[in-house]
Amino acid sequence: MMRILRIGISILFVLTLALFAFTWYRAEYKADKTLPVIKIKGDMLEVSLDATDAELLKGVSAYDKKDGDLTDRVIVESISKFTDVGVCKVYYAVCDNDDHVASASRKITYKGYRPPRFTMNRSLCFSQMESIDVAGVIGAKDVLDGDISSNIIITSADYEYGVIGTYTVKAEVSNSKGDQISISLPLIVEDRNINAPTVTLSKYLIYVKKGTAVNPRKFFVSALDSYNADVSDTLVMENNYKSSKEGIYSFHYYVTDQLGRQGHAVLTVVVE
Q: Which residues have CB under 8 Å from 23's CB, separation 6+?
């Protein structure tokens, strides 16, 4: 009886093994071992600053030997940080019906890209009696990310709280693509009466190309004393501007009220 049982178990084992081998062979034989292929026209694609996936997929197609055309399944998987100014790598992926994945990449360049730029909403020129808030003055804008003022880091190696003088503050900022810029600006703390005239400019920081002439009067808006009387007829302007040399320059605007109190504002000009 035991001998018959052992024979039966052996036969069952052999049949099970044979069935497993047959199933495995059939699955392997019928399995799709072809991989999809992504094809890209051109090594570099120029795109707009607000490029959509449809724009990024221009010239991209995909094909699989079993499933046929897979172009409509290609996706933009990711976009790298800048590898050069305004240049990124975009990565594509596609999946066929058997979950085989293929990937490819190419470079893209953003048309009209320029590095971020700083802005200022007033002069970095303060009375000793004012609260000095440099972070509230300096902002930054980027053609890709818009307002990136929250990313700014401001430092100063020589500033002394409450002491009259001219100091240097450094601002640094980067956009989402890793493009980082910095600027060093003069911070002026002066013995100016809190009721001194107020000088208002249309801009407090501008960027110009080397060789560009700057008319400081163009940016002057108004000069009012503490009673809102116009004192613009006392305006005196000074500057250290050299259009032929890259750098950061200051245009100073001074006005004086009837009591001899002097108002002061500064236009900062960056020559690129």
A: none
